[in-house]
Each structure stands twice: as structure tokens, then as C-alpha cells.
Amino acid sequence: MSIAIEDGNYLQEAWEHVLTCLSRFEHLLLLGEGAPPESSFFSVSVPDPDEKLQKNLKKKGSALQNPAVMAVVRGGSYDSASVGTNLAGLVSPEQINNFISNLNLLDQIGNFELNHIFAHSQRLNGDAIVAFVKALCKVSMAELQSPTDPRVFSLTKIVEIAHYNMNRIRLVWSRIWNVLSDFFVLVGLSENLSVAFFVMDSLRQLAMKFLEREELANYNFQNEFLRPFAVVMQKSTSSEIRELIVRCVTHMVLTRVGNVKSGWKSVFTVFTIAAADEWKNIVLLAFGTMEKIVRDYFPYITETETTTFTDCVKCLIAFTNSKFNSDASLNAIAFLRFCAVKLAEGGLVCYDKNKECNHANPEENISNYKDDHVFFWVPLLSGLSKLTSDPRPTIRKGAVEVLFDILKDHGHLFSSIFWINIFKSAIYPVFNMEQRHDGYLLLAENSLGPFEEESAYFESDAVAVGCLIELFTKVFDVVRSELVHVLEVLSSYIKSPCRQLSNIGLYALLRLTDNLGQNFSEKEWKDVSLVLKFSAEFTFPVFSQIVDAMSKISIPDRFQTYSDAEDYSDHESSVHNEEDANMEKASYAIVRLKDHVAVLLSIVEVIQKLYEVHKKSFSASHVGILLEILSSVASHSSKVNSEASLLQKLEKVCSLLEIPEPPVVHLENECHQRYLRFLKNILRDNVLVSDKPIIESRIVSECENVLQIYLNCSGYSSGKDAADNMVSHNNSMLRRVIPLPSAKKEELAARTSLIVLAIRALNDLDRDTFRNHLRRIFPLLVNLVRSEHSSGILSAAAWILSTKHPLDRFDQFCHVSSQKRNLINRNALRKRRNQVFWFIFFVATVALLDCCHRPSLLFAKSSPRKLQEPAMRKRERENPCGVCGHYHRYEEGEVCGICGHRLPASDDRPIQHASAFPTEILKDFLYLGSYDNASRGELLKTLGISRILNTVPACQNLYKNSFTYHCLKDLENLQFDDANQFLEQCEREKARVLVHCMSGKNRSPAIVIAYLMWSRGWRLIQSFQWVKERRPQVELTTEVHAQLVEFEKRNFGSNEAFPPSKMIVHEPPSFGFNTLFPKGIGATTAPVFNQPTTVSIFQSVDTNSDPNAFVFGAVRSSTGNEAPMES
């Protein structure tokens, strides 16, 4: 001991012998005093098979089993002791007592002498103290690892040595702590939990002593002495040790929070590791401490070092990934928003003592903050961006909302360069559609797999895309260059084979153009058009995949599930399994085809809506691109409907599975109608003035295509050949026409509106243009009269020839000059004359027969309602109406016999088309639409609509499991009070609601107007104008208007003057379809068949006038109310 005190600076490795002797002396002192051995505080497992013998020896005194004690008592040195000493040579208690009494050890050495050496360590130089600490750690390790008698004497001295030498210079202290840190980590990972517990508690005591001292600036020793907690926390396999560490760190932080400086980094590291722990108690314990730190002690986090803010953010993000408690994850996301608020307030700048904070001029602080501290946003925003791919819907949606809310609220702090970096690192990763497509199993070349519609993602996707459009609209001037990449994001959704995702992208594109369309340049509009073009072309191969896959599948004649495999042989079971697999693949193909149809229909509708709203911003190149898209989609729709073998298989599958067939006919009709309307709109608006002949030629080609499609459906494969062979001098026998099957008749009825539109388009052409293309059109018109058709088609065909080619120009049409007459075969001229003759003959004959079978048309003005309704035949079936597309019960052979749709004549006004999107009356709350809008459930979900107010009692509620319905029961009187209470509840609960009637023009607008009067305090005229500006097709009847006036009197006491010029009030509506063929305005009346004043259908008429309205269904209701539709 004297040597250790006097020559300690020169001992170096010899300190191990000195400290070992001190350890032995201390042990002998304890034995002499009769103190219990330290091993009693630890639970040691001794690997001895004879457990009874070992327990008996422990009862006699475990201290006697110490190898060092046995060596000393026998007279040997401590180095001669061996861990593997045999138990047969144990020392008896009498030998120990005699040995201690002979040494008189208690009289010579006491605790004071032992402690004096450790206290004297403060006087050792730098190298000596390091050697001293190394030797002490080695001796302590030997004590703790003793298999029979673990001791903690040296461990307690380590804590004292660290405390005595705490004031040494940084260089020396760092060397000391490197040794101590490795020691604590090694012992903390011990398999003996009692030893590990004792070591961690000793480290906590040492850390508390250090935290009592204030750390100097730029001195990160707190982080160093807390690091062993993090290392043991990460490497320990014992949940008890990990929980102890969390509790130790919690105790240190909460009791010494004001003194924690650089130690925050290690604290957050420990909690970050705890957030990913597999034990729920540890996770919740750590998050509770983290919650208190962020909520109550946030200013202390960045008081000395702002980089700890990043560690705090990473810790919170780790808790959001916790799988045990979603509430903890959501609270962690909320704390991330709190951190963003603190960061935006410039808190990090003011807390940074290395910079001067100018409290007098906060604007200057914010300016400096933008440049110097903007990088702190990166981990916060990137962490939230990664959370958007979390499998839990609530976490995913919460992360999306918080991310975009932070960007919208604090984006003014960012420069344009940083904004671009945010889009690349935080925003675009949210919309990683490659991973999403992996989730949806696409069709392979040789197999047909299931298309997984993970509906849990749809809501968060809709929220994310909506937030993106809203954010981009707000910062468009700063990030205008990112428009191309935003369009790529939307394109990735539009290209998705899932119609829900595709609708999300299309609706977002409409929102983007509505918000920023007036600011787009010509190049930007071209980018928008190209996105639609590439997206449409991307969807076409999906149909080829379906065709290829279905070609390898055979459909059984009858389908039956076989659950009892024991009743069948192995061969029969394999056959049945194969049939089940084929039927399953076929059902997937039907789903895929329906989605494909829905995506194409949505694309063409968006194109039409874009043109209607932004046509003034479109140049000729933009219109050309849109025209090309519609043309390609129309051609593709015809290709889809021409795959007879595929459609037959799918029809068979649908019959076996009792599911609806894919609406391929509706797709073809709709695509061709929109393409033809788009061509007519271009010609009307003079968008492509220089290309007018080309547009007219495309109109004629499209009409020719439409006519040929109709003739093919009716059984005429080639219009020209059929017309040439209609009259044959070599064969005077009359042809026998085979009646069409009912399915073909239904298809022809569904194509009625398309064929009528084509004929009207031809009628709108100039006379000279029509003459130039007459050779192509005339044979098709001839066969059109010969085929099965409705009276509406006959009326349109007769009108076009009576106005464009009256009888007095028949010779001019068939005339051939004398020079050419000699070159033309007389038979060819005779055939041409026969074509005209037979066309006139058939037109007159069919008109006469139609007039005879429907005498009410001659007396429509004077006959009662019963005479106007067609007589019902025996066979009635549920089929789609050829005009509106809804399902009604109609008389076979007629277009629609119950719904009351009329076919008024057309004037020069553009044909209005009903949009699939309802009209937004009040932002994010109130929507107004028709029954067609209410029947599009997926589109309503995309818009966020959850409740529907049905104003027509007879309208069927289609999606009772998906939406909350409220129906008005009275058909005659509108129940304004009932509707207002329902709408008020929806607005109070922030639920989006759709108000609809049949057409969206009369009853539902009245309900919306009444609610605006009641909730907003507006008068009737103001409320009506508000609705009319957003939905121009509103047409209130006189009865409904009177009810609104009465409602205004009841609420305001008196009604304001409401001049007729301020409001459009019409006769009882015909379900909103009277705009398909608007009635002409003019004094001159053109003759139409089935009218008594008509002398001849070929008499010369004013070519500038239009035909009268032709009724080819039931006459409109005269009651002023919308007729109920059969559900």
C-alpha cells in the first residue's frame, strides 16, 4: 500500500497486483467481521449435477469456496488459485478463523487505509490514472465473473474513481472514459441478470453525478457517458435490462432536464431503439417519456445544439412505426406537426446561443432562418413521406394530411430551390406507383391472375392526390417548373388498371386545370393533352392481355362447385379443379374488362369537359391531340366489341355466374357519340378554320362508320353491296327476311341515340359538302331504311333527304352528261336510279305503316293521354332505354314506352351532354346532380361524398351499404324543412352530401335553393342565381317555383320581386333529356310524316328550318312533376 501511494505513477501494469491484493484484503475483512458474503445479493447458477450437495455447501458459507481464499489459507499465492479447484479441497470455517487471528489483519489494515489508495488516485498523472483504471476494471471483471462468489468491491470503487477524477482535463478524461465505457457495456451484457442490473444501476448513479455539473459549451461529455446505455439497449437480449435502461434514462432526464445538454442525442437514441422493441411495455414506457419531453421540455432540446432537433424528429418517426398502439403512432405524428410549428416560429434560431438573436427585428431573424436552418425540415418532411406507405390506413392518412398541412402552412419560408428539393425527396415518393402496381397483380401473358383492389389504399390515395393539387395550386408561381412531374404523378394513377385509382387521377387533373388553367401557357396545355394521350394509349394493351388469356381457357357448359372431393375419382377431381380454375380466371377477366371500360369512358368524358371549360385556351395543336385521343379510343371500343369469341365466352361465364356482362356496347356507343360531338363542336366553334374540310371529311367518315356498325348489327354486312343487290332484274323473287333475335333488337335499341346523332350530324353539313360525300353515304341510308329500326331513325333519315335532296333535284342527282353517258354502262345508271326509287318507296311505305300503327301521332294535340300512350304488347322486358341509358320496362319494338322521354327537333344550339360529375354548390359539402350522378358509386367515393338526399320517392337507392340515404316521401310537395334538417346535420358533421332528383334540373335544385335561403339567409333570387351559375341546366317548373316563393314568404315575411327575365321557368320537364334534340325556333314549319298537313315528304321546303318534334316514346307528363321511374 505504501508503494501504491508513493510510487503510483510508475506502477503501470503492476496496478493489477496491487488492486488484487486490496480486493483480497477487503474480502478477508468482511469474513473477519462476520458480514454476509456479497454473493447473497446475486442469483448464481452453479453448473453442478449434485444440486443437494451444492446447496448444503452454500448453507455452510459460500465464502469458503472462493479459490483465492483457499490459496491464501493453505499458504499459496493468489496467482496459484484456479477457477477449476475441486470442491474436495474446501477450507473449513475453523481454518479461516485461525488464519485471520494469526495475521491480526483487523488491527493492521482497515477501511480507511483501503479507501486512501483510491482517494489518492487524484494525484496520479495522466498515464498513471489510465493504467490504474484499466487495472481496476480488470479486477472488477474477475470479481463479477466468479462462478461461486461474485463481488462488487472493485465496481463500487470504479464509480468513486470516476467521481474523484471528474475534474481532469478533457484529453485525460476521454481516455479514462473510453476504458470505463467498454467495461460498462461488457458487464451490462452479462448473462447474469443480477450482475447486469447492478452494473446499469451503478452507471446510472455515475451519470447522475455528472448531470449535477453544468456542461461547458462545445463539450459533449454528456453524450459520451450516456452512450453505454444506448449500446446495451441495442445489444441486450434481456427485456428486463432494456426496461431498466429506459427507466434509468427517464429518471435522469426528468430530474436533471435543465442540465442535459449534449446528452439529448444519447437520450433520443435510447428511445428510438425502444420504439422498435418487441415488448409493448417498453414501447409505451419510452413513448410516455418522449411525449412529456416534447410537450413540456421542447425548449431544452435545442438550447445548446440545434442538431438534436433532427434526433428528436427521428425518434418520433420511429414511434409512428410502432405496431403495438396506433394511438401512440398518431400522437407521434401530431408531435411532428408540433415540431414543425416550433421550427417555423424560428425557435431553433433563438435557442442557438452561437448566433445573436435580434429580438427587436423578428423579420430579420426569419430571413436568416430561411437560409441557415432550412435543412432541419428535410428529416421531418422525409420521415412523414415514408410514413405514407405504412400498411395501416389511419397512420397512412394521418401522415399524408400532416405532411401537406405543414407544407401549406409553412411553405412561405422555403426558397424555390428548396421547394424543388422537397418535391423530389418528400412529395414524389408518396406517389410511388411502381410499388402500388406490384400490389395489384396484373395479367400475365400466359395466365390470368386476380386483380386485388386494396380498397384500404383508395381513401389515402384520394386524400394524397387532392392535397398535392391543392398545394401545387398554392405554390404554382414558385414551382411552375414542376408541372411536368406533377402531371406524371397524375398519369401514373390514370394508367392504373384499377378504375378507382384511374378516377382519382382524372378527377385530380380536372381540379388542376380548373384551378390553374387560366395561367397555363401553350406548352403547358400541350403537356396536359399529351398526358391524356399517353395514358389512354397505355390502357389499350390491357384488352389484348385479356384476349390472350381467355383464348387459353375453355368454359364448361354448366358450372358447379364441388366441395365433396371424396365422391369423385382422382381424374374427375382434377377435371373439376381445372374447371373451377378456368371459371375463376374468367371471372377475373370480366372484372378487368369492366374496369377497362370504365377507365376509357372516364378518359373521354374528361376530354370533353376540358374542351367545354377551357376551349378558349386551346390552340389548334391542343385540339388536334384531343381529337386524336377520341379517335383512337373510339376505334379501340369498336375493336373490343368485335371480339366475338371473347364476348361469347364472357357472356357464357356471366350466365353461369349470374353476374352482369361487361358493357362493351355502351362503351362503343358512348365513345363514338363523344367523338362525333367533339367533331361537331370543333366545326361549330371554328377552332380549326384552316382544316375545316378535313374536319368535315372526318365527320362524314365517322358517320359512315356509325351507320355501318348499326347495319352490321341489324344483319347487313356491307351497305353498298346490299344496296346494289336490292333490286335484281335476274331474280324477281322477293327476299325473305329472318327476324332478328331479341338480343340484337335490344342492341339496336341501345344504338338508336348514336345512329340518330350521326344522321343529325350529316344534316348539319353544308349542302355542297354533303353532295361531295353522297356516294359514300347514300347506300348506307338505303339499307338503314330496310333494316329494323325505330321511328326516330326513320324520321331523321327522311328529313335529311327531304331537306338536302328534294324531288325537284332528283334528275340532277341521277343526271350524267351526254359525253359520259356513252362510257357508263346503262345497267349501272339503272341501278343508281333504282336505289333512289326504292329508297323513296321504302321511306313512304314505312312512314305510312308507322302512321297506321300509331294513329295518335296524327291527333297528338286533341287526343287524350290514353290515346297517346302506345298499346303494350305481350312481351315486356327490362332493358336499357336507348336515350337515357337507365333500365326501364319498355314495349318491345319501341325505344322507351314508360319513361316519357321525347325527341324534339334540333336547332343550331350545341348538344348538351350530362356529366358524370355532380355540381359542387358549396365547397367540400354540398353537391347537386341527377340520378345518373347518384348511380356512380365509385365516383362519389372519390369525391368524398358519404350521404345522399334523394328527392324523388320512386328513385331506387342503389348503394345502401356504402352511403347514408335520406329520402323525401312526398312526390307532389317538396319537404323543405325535412331536407334542411338533414343538410344542416351533414354540414355540422362535415359530411359531403349529394342532392339529386331524376334529371338534376327541377326538384333537387329547388331543395338546394331552399337550403341556401334557410342556412345562408339569402333571398330567392340570390340563391337561384348562385345555383344557376354553377349548374346552368337548372330549369324550375312553375309549380316548384311557386313552392319556393311560398317558402321565402314563410321565412322572410315577404318575397322580393322576381321578374321572369331573372329566372328560367319551363313547362314540366321530360326528365332532363329535352336538350338532346332542342326544339327549333322559327315561324316556318317544316312538314313531317304522320302530320295531316303534309302533302308529300318530298315537297320543297325551307332548308333553313328544322323538323317538328317527333315523339317516338310516351308523351311527356303534363302534371308538372317528374314521372317516377320503376326501380
UniProtKB/TrEMBL annotation:
Which UniProt key words apply to this protein? Hydrolase, Protein phosphatase
* Highest taxon listed in the record's lineage: Eukaryota
Q: Which organism is it from?
A: Vanilla planifolia
Tyrosine-protein phosphatase domain ranges (all copies): 917-1053
| A molecular function (GO) term | MAP kinase phosphatase activity
Question: In this protein, which residues make up the domain named Tyrosine specific protein phosphatases?
Answer: 974-1042
Q: Which GO terms describe its cellular component?
A: nucleus
Biological process terms in GO annotation: abscisic acid-activated signaling pathway; auxin-activated signaling pathway
Could you tell me which InterPro entries the record lists for this protein?
ARM-type_fold, Dual-sp_phosphatase_cat-dom, IBR5-like, Mon2/Sec7/BIG1-like_HDS, Prot-tyrosine_phosphatase-like, Sec7/BIG1-like_C, Tyr_Pase_AS, Tyr_Pase_dom
Signal peptide bounds: none
Query: What PROSITE patterns would the database entry show?
Result: TYR_PHOSPHATASE_1 (PS00383), TYR_PHOSPHATASE_2 (PS50056), TYR_PHOSPHATASE_DUAL (PS50054)
Does the keyword section mention Hydrolase?
A: yes
Full protein name: Uncharacterized protein
Q: Does the keyword Iron apply?
A: no
